[in-house]
Design goal:
There is one protein chain. The chain is α+β, with helices and mostly antiparallel strands and 477 residues long. The chain has 10 helices and 7 strands. Strands 2-4-5-7-6 form a 5-stranded mixed β-sheet. Strands 1-3 form a two-stranded antiparallel ribbon. Strand 6 and strand 7 form a beta hairpin. Helix 2 runs antiparallel to helix 3 and helix 9 runs antiparallel to helix 10. It is rod-shaped, with a radius of gyration of 58 Å. The N terminus is likely disordered.
Length: 477
C-alpha cells in the first residue's frame, strides 16, 4: 500500500491534473467575481447619482412652487388659502433639502446645499419680513416690488440647480461608461480564463494520454516481440504504477515460463540421456569388464617392472566405467529409501576427504533432513571437490528457517561469471581440465529429486548454495 501511494499512479496523476484545473478555475472564478463586483459598484454609483439628481430636482420644483404661491398672493388671490399653501410648500422644501443632506454618498449636492440654504433664508426674510407686512398694510405696489426681488433670488436658485443637474448628468454618464467598460472587462476576463481552463484541460488530457499510452505501447511492443526474442528477454517495467505493476507481473510469468521450459528441456534431456546411458551401459560395461579382467591377469603375469601399460589400461577402463555411471546417475537420479540424516554431519564427513582446509561458520548442532544419505553425501562431496579444484581455502556457512536449511559453499577462486550461473549445471559443460561436465549437473538432479535446490552465485569467488527441506527445526549448539 505504501508503494502504491509513493508511486506515480494513474490516479495520482489524474488527481494532480484535477487539482491544477481546479486551481485555474478557482482563480478564474475569483477574478470574474471581482470584475462583477466592479460592475456592480459602478451601477450602484449610477443609481446613487440618479437618486441625488431626483432629489435635487424635487428641491428645485419646491422652490418654484414656493415662489408661485407668493406670486398668487401678489396678484391678490385668496390670501388665507395661498398663505397656507406657501407655508406648506416651505415645509416640503425644508424636508426635501434635509433629504438631500442625508444622502450618504452624495457627490454634487453637498457643495450646493449652503447656497440653497442661503437663498431659502433670503426668500423667507423677504416673505415674512417684507412681503406679508406690505400686503397687510395694503401696499400692493410695494408687495409686487418685493416679489420681483424674490424672483431674482429664485432665478439664482434655478441657475444653481441647473448647474448641479448638469454636473450630475455628466457624473452619471461617466459612471455608465465605467460600468460598461467594467462589464466588457469582466466578459473578456471570463472568456480568457475559460479558454485557459479549457487549454489546461487539453494539456492535462494530452499529458495523461502520453503518461499512459507510451508505457502501454512499449509494453505491447515488447510483449509482441517476445516470441522472437532471445531467452531471458523481459518487458519494460516503467510508467505509472499500474502499468509498471503489469510489466512486473508479466515478467514474473515469463520467468516462471522459462523455468518450466528449462525444466521441460531438462526432463527431455534426462529422458534422452536415460535411453543413451542404458544403451551405453549395456554395450560398454560388459566389454569394459572383460578389458579390466584381462588387464588384471596381464598385470599379474608380467614382471614387476613391466606392468605400467597394464595399470594404464585398468585406470582408463575404470574411468570409462565412472563416466557411464555418471550418465546413469544424471539421467536417472533415483533414490534409495530416505531416512533422517544430519546434514551437518554429512558435510563434515565430506570435508575430511579433501586436501584443502574447510572452515565451518555458524553451524548448528544438527540439521535433520530426510534423504538418501549416500546420494546426498555425493552432492556435498561434489561441491567441496569443485571448490577445492579452484580455491586454496573453503568456507561452509549455514542458514536455516523452520522449514528449510541453506548450505553455502564458498572458495577464493575466480568464481562463476554472471553469464554462466545456469550454464555450469548443463551436462558436459566444464571449466576443469580433468572434469567430465557431469558433476554439478548430477548434484542438481539429486537435490531436485529430494525436493531441494542447488544454485550458483556469480563471483568473485566460487559460491554455491544448496537449499534443502528440513524434517524438524534446527537445533542450536
Amino acid at each position: 500500500m505504501t508503494r502504491l501511494f509513493a508511486a506515480a499512479t494513474v490516479g495520482r496523476r489524474l488527481l494532480w491534473g484535477l487539482i491544477a484545473l481546479f486551481a485555474v478555475s478557482a482563480t478564474a472564478t475569483g477574478l470574474a467575481l471581482s470584475s462583477t463586483r466592479a460592475v456592480e459598484a459602478e451601477l450602484i454609483g449610477v443609481e446613487q447619482l440618479a437618486e441625488e439628481s431626483r432629489r435635487l430636482g424635487r428641491v428645485g420644483s419646491l422652490f418654484r412652487e414656493y415662489y408661485m404661491h407668493q406670486a398668487h398672493l401678489a396678484l391678490g388671490m385668496d390670501r388665507a388659502l395661498h398663505t397656507e399653501m406657501t407655508r406648506r410648500a416651505h415645509t416640503d422644501l425644508v424636508a426635501a433639502l434635509e433629504a438631500v443632506e442625508r444622502l450618504p454618498e452624495a457627490r454634487v449636492a453637498p457643495a450646493a446645499l449652503p447656497g440653497l440654504r442661503t437663498h431659502l433664508a433670503t426668500l423667507d426674510r423677504l416673505f415674512d419680513g417684507e412681503f406679508l407686512p406690505a400686503l397687510a398694510a395694503g401696499h400692493a405696489d410695494h408687495a409686487a416690488h418685493i416679489h420681483h426681488r424674490a424672483a431674482g433670488t429664485v432665478q439664482e436658485i434655478t441657475t444653481l440647480l441647473d448647474a448641479e443637474e448638469t454636473h450630475l448628468g455628466q457624473a452619471i454618464a461617466a459612471a455608465r461608461i465605467r460600468a460598461g467598460e467594467a462589464a466588457r472587462a469582466a466578459t473578456a476576463h471570463s472568456a480568457l480564463f475559460l479558454g485557459s481552463a479549457l487549454g489546461l484541460a487539453l494539456v492535462i488530457a494530452a499529458w495523461m494520454g502520453r503518461a499512459i499510452q507510451r508505457p502501454v505501447e512499449r509494453l505491447r511492443a515488447a510483449a509482441a516481440a517476445l516470441p522472437d526474442a532471445a531467452p531471458g528477454a523481459r518487458v519494460p517495467e516503467d510508467g505509472p504504477f499500474e502499468v509498471a505493476e503489469l510489466g512486473r507481473t508479466l515478467n514474473a510469468v515469463l520467468g516462471e515460463l522459462e523455468l518450466q521450459r528449462r525444466a521441460r528441456g531438462e526432463a527431455e534431456t534426462l529422458a534422452a540421456l536415460g535411453r543413451i546411458a542404458a544403451g551405453v551401459a549395456h554395450e560398454i560395461n560388459n566389454p569394459l569388464g572383460v578389458i579390466l579382467g584381462h588387464a588384471r591377469v596381464l598385470e599379474r603375469a608380467l614382471p614387476a617392472g613391466d606392468t605400467e601399460s597394464a595399470q594404464a589400461i585398468v585406470q582408463e577402463a575404470r574411468h570409462c566405467q565412472h563416466i557411464v555411471q555418471d550418465l546413469l546417475d544424471y539421467a536417472r537420479p533415483t533414490l534409495a529409501a530416505r531416512t533422517p540424516v544430519d546434514l551437518v554431519e554429512l558435510a563434515r564427513a565430506a570435508a575430511e576427504r579433501i586436501t584443502v582446509p574447510v572452515e565451518f561458520r555458524g553451524a548448528p548442532a544438527t540439521l535433520v533432513v530426510e534423504a538418501d544419505a549416500r546420494r546426498l553425501g555425493a552432492v556435498l562431496r561434489n561441491l567441496l571437490d569443485n571448490a577445492a579444484a579452484f580455491g586454496r581455502s573453503i568456507s561452509v556457512t549455514w542458514s536455516a528457517t523452520p522449514a528449510f536449511a541453506s548450505l553455502h559453499v564458498r572458495d577464493d577462486g575466480p568464481g562463476v561469471p554472471a553469464s554462466q550461473t545456469e550454464r555450469v549445471f548443463e551436462p558436459f559443460f566444464t571449466t576443469r581440465p580433468d572434469g567430465t561436465g557431469l558433476g554439478l549437473a548430477i548434484a542438481r538432479a539429486i537435490a531436485g529429486a529430494h525436493g531441494g535446490e542447488l544454485r550458483a552465485h556469480a563471483g568473485p569467488g566460487g559460491h554455491f548454495e544448496l537449499r534443502f527441506p528440513l524434517v524438524r527445526p534446527p537445533q542450536e549448539v
